[in-house]
Amino acid sequence: MSIYYFDNAATTRAYDEVITAVSDFEKDIYANPSSLHAFGGEAYKAVDYAASNILEVLNLKGKYNVVFTCGATESANLAIKGTANKFNDIKKIHVITSVFEHPCVSESVKYLNRCGAETDFVGVDKYGMINLNELLSKIKPNTKLVSFIWVNNETGALQQAQKITEAVKNINKNIIVHIDATQGFGKIQADLSGADMITVSAHKFHGPKGVGALIMKNSVTLQPVLSGGGQQKGLRSGTVNAPSIYGMGKACEILLGDFPYNKLREKQEYLYEKITAAFGDDVINTRIFEADYAPHIISLSFEGLKSEVLLHMLEQDNIYVSSGSACSSHAKHSSVLNQTGLSKAKVDGALRISISEFTSNNDIDFLVSHLESAVKRLREIGL
């Protein structure tokens, strides 16, 4: 049977070219990139290739470098904890983030708080947009780091990243700004040049799983989180995962040749129209015609129904959606959606549908038709 995959915010299918590139690299260029011999040098060229392509996607060549990690979670931990730990007394620093963050950021900030740092979590409006005035009002003389998500992983809310960054820097240019760009990279083209650090993960844009990057201004210093052999200028010890990094670079090369934003936006609007026609627009949380959202996510809620039940009913027809973030799928309900003012009943009945360039209009038609049947059946039996 065909698979109807609508969980691309959790992970994407790797490009065929990426799969081939990683496989061939594992077979043919298997040397350790840190080795001093020529074969190791060949492996290291893959690291430079990937770093160059990542920076080119963001148009950040020249003033930034790339530290490769195992994914966005490690990158965010390195950015946040690495910034805090470089100060002599963590109890004297202040860190700001939002209530709308991925757990890799929010839990890292909470960790700093347990270590004695002062922390603030800024609110969002009904669309999930960060309250900039509140954020700026929280800045203090000892504020060292502001970290915020560019595209929310549950609703697709798209922050005005450069506006936020410039506003923070206008108050204190020495504050380090970290942007979690995991959901936005490879889908949105925007100026992020004001940020000091940017987090990305390959499997969100058709690259391999298990590899990510922290993009840093050359002037930024960090205290390493991992101790070891001092690879990557001492910032991330451990043997560099050259095959996967090469695959990440190949995915970026494909993006540079055919950036998918317009195709994704057209499919998102088609999905929006189909859902509205079937259920009305009251079920939609991602109001793409009212505020700024990424082009690949739509959150919707069926009040009175349990999202997990709907999810598993769709699964019977090989339709795969999410009830929220895959990274927090074991939580009882979404703390992110709570922050937008949704009722508990709507939060409990929330589904996240996320598309990719592989999604067809026929796939969307199939999804909406079966979703309509599933909702009708559940309402009839009172579940």
Task: Give the topology.
Layout: E1 4-5, H1 16-28, H2 38-57, E2 64-69, H3 72-85, E3 94-98, H4 103-114, E4 118-122, H5 132-138, E5 143-149, H6 161-171, E6 176-180, E7 197-201, E8 212-217, H7 242-257, H8 261-279, E9 297-301, H9 307-315, E10 319-320, H10 335-338, H11 344-348, E11 350-354, H12 361-381
Parallel strand pairs: 1-10, 3-4, 3-5, 5-6, 6-7
Antiparallel strand pairs: 2-8, 7-8, 9-11
Describe this structure in words.
This protein has 383 residues and is of the alpha/beta class. It has 2 domains: 4-12 and 260-381, Aspartate Aminotransferase, domain 1 (Alpha-Beta Complex), CATH 3.90.1150.10; 16-257, Type I PLP-dependent aspartate aminotransferase-like (Major domain) (Aspartate Aminotransferase, domain 2, 3-Layer(aba) Sandwich), CATH 3.40.640.10. 39% of the residues lie in helices and 14% in strands. The protein is globular and about 65 Å long. The two termini are 28 Å apart.
Looking at this structure, what is the CATH superfamily of the largest domain?
Type I PLP-dependent aspartate aminotransferase-like (Major domain)
Mean pLDDT: 94
Which overall shape is indicated by the principal axes computed on the Cα atoms? globular
Largest sheet: 7 strands, mixed
In the CATH classification, which architecture of the largest domain applies?
3-Layer(aba) Sandwich
Portion in helices: 25-40%
What's the arrangement of strands in the largest beta sheet?
Answer: 2-8-7-6-5-3-4
N-C termini distance: 28 Å
Query: In sequence order, what are the helices and strands, one letter per element?
Result: EHHEHEHEHEHEEEHHEHEHHEH
Residue ranges: pLDDT <50 for 5 or more in a row?
none
Write down the CATH class of the largest domain.
Alpha Beta
Number of helices: 12
